[in-house]
């Protein structure tokens, strides 16, 4: 069976103040950490592929290593601005990059592949944005209004009930966008 692909960002494991800053519905840091791990593993299987778009943990390296050992999936990390501890556990990641251009096989996509730009930060324009290329980001914790004219979305946990979001879920969001190719023939 082919592994599923998931996207996520901004867990901020070990960061007590994020509960207040992002108005997360958790009573304590321990409850947040446990619930984020539970929800991750509820969706992600051990062989699934996860692209984490930054800010994994603000806890100490040993704490972060322990949390990462509990998470299912083959994790690829796009660095965020809070990666001190995650970078000290490099073996847990398939790779670590600042930016990535991903191609997902999809028979409904142009030439059978959907290209996706992965970056911690939201961009107003990106490589191929005028050609239907998607951009996924985190960092903003749901504070940026969605642009229905752009094929980009915040995949951070604060926007998706603290769960990773699957490729199929991203695709459904993109189908509802009002984006049109800027160079398409006009009637």
Automatic annotation (TrEMBL):
Superkingdom of source: Bacteria
InterPro entries per UniProt: Calcineurin-like_PHP_lpxH (IPR024654), Metallo-depent_PP-like (IPR029052)
Segments forming domain Calcineurin-like phosphoesterase: 33-141
Signal peptide range: none
Family: Belongs to the metallophosphoesterase superfamily. YfcE family.
Protein name: Metallophosphoesterase family protein
Lineage, uppermost ranks: Bacteria, Pseudomonadati, Bacteroidota, Flavobacteriia, Flavobacteriales
